[in-house]
Design a protein that fits this description.
Elements: H1 16-19, E1 22-27, E2 45-46, E3 49-50, H2 51-61, E4 66-71, H3 76-82, E5 87-89, H4 96-101, E6 113-118, H5 126-136, E7 144-149, E8 159-162, E9 168-172, H6 179-182, E10 187-195, H7 196-203, H8 219-226, E11 231-235, H9 247-267, E12 271-272, E13 285-286, E14 291-292, E15 297-298, E16 303-304, E17 309-310, E18 315-316, E19 320-321, E20 326-327, E21 332-333, E22 338-339, E23 344-356, E24 361-373, E25 378-379, E26 384-386, E27 396-398, E28 403-404, E29 409-411, E30 414-416, E31 421-422, E32 427-428, E33 437-438, H10 450-476
Length: 477
């Protein structure tokens, strides 16, 4: 088995950046007003988990284990989501510099560089963090290093203004930029890195003397330059710096994540017949020689082992699919489903909290919940396990080699022994011994000529009704 498809790449452990201690401050206090949502912006899901968790996992993949998350008041769910990373509260949202300043006490015992990241910019990679740190550790010893990018449409991004020597002079916001500055293609991506002591020294000197009355993180560059310090920048691909500020941007970020997950799955040996139609989750684990047909959706917690086949229009969540199993088309595997080696789960079959053992088959139109289906057992079309009595769930146990006929209802708790056969159309509410036959359908009854008599009777009544309707119409005229 390969690791989950979402696992980011690791930086080169021998690089200078990897040898220096680093901590991260993640800004996550935003309410996300433009999301039109009751949940904090960074809690919006991306590939099945909050976007802020993508940022934290990327930090860990880059070898950065220390992180502080800046949250807003009354964000208990967010604090739980980022645990065990500590959180600090920005009681008043007075700007990005003010937000970072809230982490000063939490990092008081830390000596090293601090990277500032944004919880709503979830696509940054471990390689880019390594590039940023390597540039900051360069021979010109910059005091502040900013991450920049060159978007196709610079639009209203802040611009990175460089000096004649290539050093970063200042960051100018679009609305304050002149025509020459707006023509600059190098834009501010947001993340930056600085030594902890210098970072908080500069943050304490940031003012809110601007149109919005906020304390801007971008002012650090001008403050550092005014103190005679050198600043620098590193570049990242535009796709890594997409800010998910509204639902449309969130959808764009989801598309990037899905492309990454698909590419990794295929690089690890899976076949995706139509990759753009397959939707993976951050923790989806897919083995080698797995074949995935079009229009398949993976929720959280899915593991597919080598050689399995997932046919079209399936939905999987919280389940395992063993080597050589075949799922679908049009199957649904819900949490707790364990599909054994070479087992078959066919069209319009739903499995929940059930173990389907090696070689067992449920090929059509069945519901199997809270159950065990033994090895090589066969579940006929229309079979259901009646597992819920309105208050409690109950277990159904189907033995190895058992045959369950079509349209059978197994009323749990109930067991069907090894090799037993249940006749089609049965309602089974008592245990069936091994190798026994259980049939509960009603006795066959016939009434000769009844159908012809029924049709004649109905035809006569219909004719009389039409005749009566005709008389009523004439009387009205």
């Amino acid at each position: 088995m390969t690791s989950p498809a979402a696992a980011p790449s690791q930086p080169d452990a021998t690089s200078p950046a990897a040898l220096r201690p680093a901590a991260v401050v993640v800004l996550a206090a935003g309410l996300g007003t433009r999301m039109k949502s009751a949940r904090p912006k960074v809690m919006q899901p991306l590939a099945g988990r909050p976007m802020v968790n993508h940022v934290l996992d990327t930090c860990r993949a880059a070898g950065i284990s220390r992180a502080v998350v800046v949250v807003g008041p009354d964000m208990a769910a967010l604090e739980q989501a980022v645990a065990p990373a500590p959180t600090v509260v920005q009681a008043e949202r007075l700007g990005t510099a003010h937000a970072v300043l809230q982490a000063r006490a939490a990092l008081a015992d830390f000596a090293g560089e601090v990277i500032v990241l944004f919880g709503d910019v979830p696509l940054i990679t471990a390689d880019t963090l390594a590039t940023l740190r390597a540039r900051h550790a360069g021979p010109d010893a910059p005091s502040v290093t900013v991450l920049g990018f060159r978007p196709v449409d610079p639009a209203r991004y802040g611009r990175l203004v460089l000096g004649s020597d290539g050093a970063l002079e200042r960051i100018v916001e679009f609305k304050e930029a002149n025509a020459a500055e707006r023509a600059i293609g190098l834009c501010n991506g947001g993340p930056l890195v600085a030594d902890r002591a210098l970072l908080f020294e500069l943050l304490a000197r940031v003012t809110n003397d601007n149109a919005k009355g906020e304390y801007y993180l971008t002012d650090l560059v001008a403050l550092a330059r005014a103190a005679g310090r050198r600043c620098a920048y590193a570049e990242a691909p535009e796709a890594e710096l997409i800010g998910a500020d509204d639902r449309a941007a969130l959808a764009r970020a989801e598309a990037v994540v899905q492309d990454r997950l698909r590419a990794r799955a295929m690089a690890n040996g899976a076949t995706l017949a139509a990759p753009e139609t397959v939707f993976l989750c951050w923790d989806t684990a897919i083995g080698r020689d797995v074949t995935i047909a079009p229009n398949v959706v993976f929720g959280p917690g899915v593991r597919v082992e080598d050689g399995a086949e997932i046919r079209a229009f399936c939905h999987l969540e919280g389940c395992t699919v063993a080597a050589g199993a075949i799922i679908g088309p049009f199957a649904r595997l819900r949490p707790g489903a364990e599909i054994g080696p070479e087992a078959h789960i066919g069209n319009f079959v739903e499995v929940k909290n059930a173990r389907i053992e090696a070689g067992a088959k449920a090929n059509h139109l069945a519901y199997i919940g809270d159950a065990r289906v033994g090895a090589r057992a066969n579940i006929g079309a229309g079979t259901i396990t009646c597992n819920y009595d309105g208050f409690d769930k109950h277990h159904t146990d189907i033995g190895a080699g058992a045959f369950i006929g079509s349209n059978t209802a197994l009323v749990a708790p109930v067991s069907v022994g090894d090799g037993a056969i249940v006749g089609a159309g049965s309602v089974v509410a008592r245990n069936v011994p091994a190798d026994a036959l259980a049939v509960t359908r009603a006795a066959h009854e016939e009434r000769a000529g009844w159908a012809a008599s029924f049709r004649k009777h109905k035809a006569v009544r219909k004719a009389r009704r039409k005749a009566a309707e005709g008389k009523d119409t004439k009387a009205a005229d």
